[in-house]
Amino acid sequence: ExxxxxxxxxxxxxxxxxxxxxxxxxxxxxxQVVIPELDGLDELFAGISRIVIVGAGTAAYSAFVGKYAxxxxxxxxxxxxxxxEFRYRDPLVGPDVLVIxxxxxxxxxxxxxxxxxxxxxxxxxxxICNTQGATIPRESDxxxxxxxxxxxxxxxxxxxxxxxxxLYLFALHVARIRGTVTPELQADAIQExxxxxxxxxxxxxxxxxxxxxxxxxxxxxxxxxxxxxxxGYPIALEGALKLKEISYIxxxxxxxxxxxxxxxxxxxPGLPVFVVVPSPSGAPVLHAKVVSNIQEIRxxxxxxxxxxxxxxxxxxxxxxxxxxxxxxxxxxxxxxxVVPLHIFAMGLANAKGLDVDQPRNLAKSVTVE
Length: 369
Ligand code: BG6
Prior knowledge:
single chain; alpha/beta
């Protein structure tokens, strides 16, 4: 089933464009996002005062990205919580709260138990899931299926980009109902989403080989940091998680603004640091701040690998390597910025001769608490 690919992970990364495209399919009508599965729930979405998103691992990081879009477009406060933490802390949710669970498999026990607890407390539950008929969607009041296709490699890749896409569609669906976005903004966002598959393809075609080469050179690396800001922050966490999971290298993701409050103490000559750089035109203030973070770590000898917009000239003098991504609006950039990080993690595991699809100690879906 791998086709000509060396691993399921390689195949699934190559399917990231289709995962995004198929998640959007059938959910745009007359220039607006309408998710047919959520038909009949307008009153619920109009009335909720808060959203809590629960998940584990990569799914939880997609939730972090989704929070920015839901708050910006639908103007509903969103909390993201690890499912296993939510379950055991007497959470403050009730009928005015929507609890969204994110799960690729739909079988993760931690997430299932959080959904059951939310239901017990009277909250409405929505499952965003990639696996038809799985347990979590069956236990939820509503479900939005992603259509990323089956994911076999333990480390989640195409499901992650589909999860963010699904959350963005949900945000636009609810924003339409609540009247919190103008038709122009709705149209712009839909265009941005529709353009993502080709932009991901651009990365695969133009950067994949170079990233794999870089990973090969870095096969002896013992520790890697990842920095990001705003929506780039959860992407940094995801980049670090993926590297840990399949290459067994110590990796940590940080919010770039947190650097001076602690992590900068870790920086020593030669330490590789990946930095997700916001768009200079789309987010100039954040861009300037991240470039100054890069200067701070570079001054201490870090080896900076920037993930930056192609054409971002300001970052060039400060980075040792620049992995390029196409231009996209600030909220859409994470769906592009994560692709080089997925490729890098796979490249490094391959360079170390590891089984990228079946990393030690991990299971694709963890059905115990
Ligand atoms: C973990 C997997 O145990 O479960 C991760 O190893 C995954 O890759 C996490 O992100 C959550 O899984 P799911 O199926 O609920 O999205």
